[in-house]
Amino acid sequence: MVTASKANQQPSDAPRVHNPGAGLSPEAFIEKIIALRPMIRDQQEAADANGGYVKEVHEALLDFGAYFALNPKRYNGHEFDVATFLRASIEMSRSDPGSGWCYTFATGHVPMIAGHYPQEAQDEIFTRHGGLALAPLRAPTGGTIRKVDGGYVCNGKWDWGSGMSYATHVMPTARLVEDGVAGPPTFFVPLIPIENITVLWDSWGNGNSMGLNASGSHTFVVDNVFVPENMCTPFQAFQRAGESPEGTFGTRLHGNSLYLGLTTSYFTSTIASVMVGCAWAALDEFEHVLRTKKTINPPFGYRMHSPDYQQPFGDALMYAKAADACIMEYARQYQKLLKDWENGIPLTAEADFALGALCTNAARLASKSVEVAFYAGGSSSAMKGGRLNRYFRDMATYRTHPIAQYHTAAIGFAQGYLGLPVPLLETVGGGKRS
Hints:
alpha+beta, Butyryl-Coa Dehydrogenase, subunit A, domain 1, Butyryl-CoA Dehydrogenase, subunit A, domain 2, Butyryl-CoA Dehydrogenase, subunit A, domain 3, 3 domains, seven-stranded mixed sheet, 10 strands
């Protein structure tokens, strides 16, 4: 179990890592994210062309340790809770959804790194790039991993490596291949330095996608790369570590149940937080339209004074507020599950999966908010270069993601609630241990 006294101090034997934002409160951290909004919005087109936010934004994030949001105190990280990180994601995405997606999916996998890899591996990972541990996590899409002396050899090609623009590592989930072994597939997650892979930089951005061109979702290739044993971990732990009273390397090392490193509902929450930010961004632009444009019918006043525009704005606002509230309620309930685990109550993968319903609904409400704002924003909203056009395309691109197929999610939530097996949970090795 977690020792609470360890959770907020940096051990004397820890590696020395410089965090330029060390000591920032959660509130001050969020204020700094918000303060970047004018810069990020000014570079939206450049970010799309670049496939991720531009170097100027990256350096501004470095200036206050934005990438240290979830890093453990041992490595001089902020070690913020999930609620703070999701709020940072929302505010970053409100500035630009594609950039928010890029930031969130690079930074947000730290609990897995700090949870599932042993101390000697973490000491190397969190010092190699001055404390940065930005590692896109990819689901299995054909990659393989094979056991060899001292570690594993990994091969494969993974699309949609969101957050790749400034990544230091990648975490490609790969299927274990081993001659003569039958039974269900087993998946491992190797942690591979960025210099050991090939990133196809022309595979994302610059109009390659309908939306989210700034998300850094580049394809990458791993070609016969050796991964030391301490840099590889079973994927099942990412879903079921909360069922063990012993926790993970990270809960023992860092004294924080955040480092159970669970992905099931948390992954859904990170995507949903980006969409909540997208909804607020669309509302910002819709409000600008209402305050600056006049009606096309008499008495030709500003649209903000017309009930014909007040009504859709109110609808969009209600959807956005409800979506935001769902995400924050998710964070509250998730934190409670983590605290319960510290007190000896297992955090099952099934309970974690069920909690994801809040996140799925948050994203659905946020998407509806964007739709209302776009459709009521006037024909100019559909013109190339308009921000409502951008946010609608970003939302529509999100809706193609497997996690945004709400009917599939609903079936899974119903199965879990009724006490039935949940195939969605078991697809990549999340089934119960035998």
